[in-house]
Amino acid sequence: MKRYKILIIQAVVMVLVTTSCTKDLNTKPIDPLVSTSTTVFDDPASYKQFLAKLYGSLALTGQKGQAGLPEIQASDEGTTAFLREYWAAQEVTTDECINAWGDGGLVEYHGGIWSDNNLYVKLMYERLFINIAYCNEYIRDVQAKLGSLQSPLKDDVTHYLAEARFLRAYYYYIAMDLFGNPPFATEADLPGTFTPKQIARADLFKYVESELVAIQGDLYDPGANEYARADKAADWALLSRLYLNAQVYTGTQRNSDCITYCNKIISANKYALHSSYPNLFLADNNGYRDEIIMPIAEDGVNTQSYGDMTFVIHAAVGGSEDATNMFGIASGGWAGNRMTTTFVNKFADPSGNTDKRAIFYTAGQTLNITNPTIFTQGYLCAKFKNVTSAGVPGSNGTFVDTDFPLFRFSEIYLNYAEAVLRGGSGGDAGTALSYINKIRERAYGNTTGDINASQLTLNFLIDERGRELYWEALRRTDLIRFGLFTGGSYLWDFKGNTQNGTATDAHLNIFPIPASDRQINTNLKQNPGY
């Protein structure tokens, strides 16, 4: 079920969050039309409605559909969405995407010349911490009421609490990955009573890990929750990702732990590689729970935003592409994002005839990019579309039905293989090779793309992760883990803001704390290099 009851919840949440800043949080309002933290859960349905707001904040921007009552102020409300900001930070900064709009923040992203005044850095930061604040509010109020509830409501709310803690852990994981040493607050910190302190990256790693482990018993079993809601498999998938990157975050490798959680997902026997790679990114991909462990749910009627998958699909369409019939967006493309030449060349045959994952549009496009603002320079990514696997357009010609795969089973195979190659225990090289060849056999349609044991190297894997997971908001993190995001050992078009690419400084591996927040919160020290 893709529908979120957003409009009802948003009104409730805004009142609740706002009024919870008063001195007496237990005050009951005289006006019966006003809800506060004291009364909002008088209706048992509110527990799930507020939870829907937490999930909706992965894609939506405010209290009035696609625009009108934004949660974050910006000239374009769509730019304040979590998915749009996170996707840009993870993709536009890398070899997988270059943008043609010439927007100052995005030019700085791809050129590696951003500062603490970059608009996209600021909006990403603000979205992360407003979403964390929503989670804290929910956890604080619901925990206080849990003891007074009776089954079966108490059982349901126990699951909801675990999901809220999962979402908060997910946001803090991203804050750790992007900003290194961000501000930190939990449900124990009442809003308006203090200025958040800064937490060190390694300490935040421990917090995220402890939360994800602590909630496992209260999450549904793999595949047993409603669609697009977190379960044990989503928790394990995030832990596998966390441990795979532990060396970056803490200085200590945790590859054996990564393998442990990959094995949990694999042995659950709930997931497999879906038979068709291209179908995983179409408007009816909500039917593919066999591979998509947890998505960000989209619906052209009920989740309208210019910053969710609507952005990802529209921004990639332009040139001579048929927006209506090929992509299901009759309102047209935005002619912004396309692939770099360097990334396209990771496919020996970019036509898609050999490796079906090469879903590029080339008609009227040049492979080489000499001017980033000319959209017809660079091959286009046609991976995500608002049409179903039967070729039927989505429910709306602007706002798309295509879900974003937050965790996908093929990533688990790739995580397992990489952790084994990096020396982790609990797995073996033969199994790692078999997992990689399963991915490639789906891509090639047969065994002609199989590799042998000597070919399974870390250099091979970083390219294979790109071929399998491109535009799924993982690339920046992957390149950093492999030591390729900054420095000069790996160059791509306009890295360092030059056509052929040039070395960049290592301080760019984490983003700056925005200047706007440091002016308010004097507890925050800037990350090195900014």
How would you sum up this structure, described in words?
- Residues 48-244 form the SusD-like N-terminal domain.
- It is found in: Cell outer membrane.
- It comes from Mucilaginibacter jinjuensis.
- InterPro entries: SusD-like_N, SusD_RagB_dom, TPR-like_helical_dom_sf.
- This is RagB/SusD family nutrient uptake outer membrane protein.
- The protein has 530 residues and is mainly alpha-helical.
- 40% of the residues lie in helices and 4% in strands.
- It contains 18 helices and 8 strands.
- It has helices at residues 6-19, 45-56, 82-91, 104-111, 119-146, 153-179, 201-214, 232-244, 246-250, 255-267, 309-314, 323-327, 341-344, 409-421, 429-444, 458-469, 475-481, 515-520; strands at residues 98-99, 183-184, 197-198, 292-296, 337-338, 360-361, 380-381, 404-408.
- The strands form 4 sheets. A two-stranded antiparallel sheet has the order 1-5. The protein has a two-stranded antiparallel ribbon with strand order 2-3. A two-stranded antiparallel sheet has the order 4-8.
- The longest helix has 28 residues, at 119-146.
